[in-house]
Fold these 2 entries.
Entry 1:
Amino acid sequence: MQRLLVTGGAGFIGASFVHYVLENTDAHVTVLDKLTYAGNLDSLAGLPAERFEFVQGDICDAGLVDRLVAGCDVVVHYAAESHNDNSLHDPRPFLDTNIIGTYTLIEAARKHSRRFHHISTDEVYGDLELDDPERFTENTPYNPSSPYSSTKAGSDLLVRAWVRSFGLQATLSNCSNNYGPYQHVEKFIPRQITNVIDGIRPKLYGKGENVRDWIHANDHSSAVLAIIAKGRIGETYLIGAGGEKNNKDVVELILKLMGQAPDDYDHVVDRPGHDVRYAIDSTKLRDELGWTPRFPHFDAGLEDTIRWYRNNEDWWRPQKAATEARYTEQGQ
Ligand code: NAD
Ligand code: TDX
């Protein structure tokens, strides 16, 4: 039985991964999470005690990290400050967690010769024009736009350098935009679903023409497990499910699925430096590791996600008012 140390396991994608691993393998999972505003223990409720342990702590705490890494076989590193809008207002925590936190983990993984998998984002590649026929590949040059994506790019480069200079047994993955249960209400899709539930009109930045390449969080999890099992050390794998949609279409679909008029939303001030389009070419992952998405139908996945937010108001309600108050202050 493998012992996984999952950082950031109380966040959106980390929690989805923990559920996925416990349901689909016999691994033991230890979660290390600081429980920032983005972490929620309720996302990990009801997991089997004999295969799951939660440790509250900071990935920048070298002593704690050293002890936990020593006690595991594989580190799967999700913990991050993850929201672009926050990074534009207060970049400092992004540098601490995304750069120093990653450094702290790879130093421990190097010392104890542990397998390491680094979770990253397609945003490290910058953006594409709307009419660009190309998509991001593993060979696209890094060109991040925001404090968030630049710190993720920095963390990727640290991991690559530790592979090359110190022989760290690491793989990396850069995934497109995730959606599904347990996502914080600050993010686009849950913000709009919970706005509609609350009778608030959805808020679209700028014209709403920006394109994101949506993937269900469970498909991200199955790809990460495939890379941990079969990925080649030192390699990067792009994860995407061919889910390009512009923001306006997504808002209109949410409104339609929730029984509202499709034009019942507001345009608000645009995000500074707003990336125009992300699109992933996941050929390497599919051809080398035989991975395919199991939830490729965005409309059906979105309908399930809407149902989850309707049925789990207790989970998101405590964060909603403060999140909307912050957006209102920002004119968004
Ligand atoms: P999230 O903000 O929902 O969760 C982040 C988690 O990390 C939280 O539980 C938080 O408490 C924890 N954390 C933050 N700082 C910490 C610290 N210093 N020490 C320990 N724990 C800390 O983020 P998410 O959307 O689940 O993203 C998880 C990872 O996936 C990130 O690395 C992100 O860059 C990457 N990613 C996200 C997406 C997406 O669409 N959300 C897409 C591609 C990649
Ligand atoms: O209210 C909103 N209205 C709106 O139009 C919000 C919150 C967002 N948007 C737009 C901005 C983006 O074009 O929707 C799109 C998605 O926004 P976010 O959910 O903030 O995601 P994004 O900035 O694309 O980044 C996400 O995907 C890549 C994650 O937050 C990152 O952690 C991940 O790396």
Note: The two ends are 47 Å apart (CA to CA).
Entry 2:
Amino acid sequence: MADIIENFPFEIRDFESKESEIVEKSFNGFMNKFVRIGPKGYSAPKLYLKYAASIYNMPLRPRDTVVATYQRSGTTMTQELVWLIAKDFDYETAKSTVLIQRYQFVEMPMFMDIKAIEAIGKQYTGEKAEEISKFCSTFQMLPVEILAKTPDPRFIKTHLPLSFLPPSLLDTTKVVYVARDPRDVAVSSYHHSKLFVQMGYNSDFKHFWSLFTGGLFTFTPYFEHVKEAWEKRHHPNLLFLFYEDLRKDLPANIRRIAKFLGKEPSEEQILGLCDHMKIDNFKNNKAVNLEDMRVLGLLSEGEQFIRRGKSGGWRDYFDEEMTKQAESWIIENLRNTDLRFPSMQDIQI
Ligand code: A3P
């Protein structure tokens, strides 16, 4: 049945019962009830509906910068790049302040079952109980409420499709959108879904790929998400980047981001930033690697938030049949567009 919520212009439909059954079986965590939203049929956890209207209507300001991506497309590295360039390379603050405090991640509350985390906290006494309580207290206010009290310049992170953000977005603020080869996005999202205890993905990659391409994973259909931003790529307030380009030529992309933000870093500053962004440095950087969540027991052992940082790592996960099927899926989705990924030159579209 279609439904609507106040001040949010999209129709909401429940998942088909067969679809719900598949998703509920695949995730042990709390975030396994889904709906479909709007004409593109984006799938979203039901919990998102609690926040959809407040995000859609959040007041934006001219000095805001938004980093928007489909998840696992290089958000974290782009956030760090944007923040450091905008803040004139203030490494001291960057290293001492976790990203989640430097950026408001607007739909973040839907990923956190704070009541369950508080319950975990009650099992402990002493330092760990205090840490958990401190972590939970940062969720007392919604990110959009925190934003309202944050002085300029404000930094915003989101994995929402652009159409779920305020319609004034590009007329008001700067947006950096990053896209990545969906095969690598899927592999990275698969690990990410196992990393978070509260998501608790319980099957293999092959099944995950079927969820991802079948519109049964958060904010898929993937290509619709990317196409929304691609269509706006000539807007002066939107910078469209590919993860593969960031990996291939970071200095050139730092210059592009800097120009977009109206900054002129020196060559020395650019080289310094490239060093800061090296994957091994990033893995050990507690301001970006979610170490604080690991300490609280929210992340699974054996999985990492900052992982391989490679382009084309998907090849280790796809057998021949999946590779062919992925190519057909890519061709079908790109055929009538001029969207081309740097990593897909071998695919005839
Ligand atoms: P992999 O899982 O393929 O390694 P997001 O920040 O959007 O969640 O994206 C996460 C992906 O970006 C992960 O990909 C992660 O390892 C990669 N990544 C994070 N920091 C990086 C860096 N400094 N350089 C290259 N890749 C990075």
Note: The domain at 54-344 is CATH 3.40.50.300 (Rossmann fold).
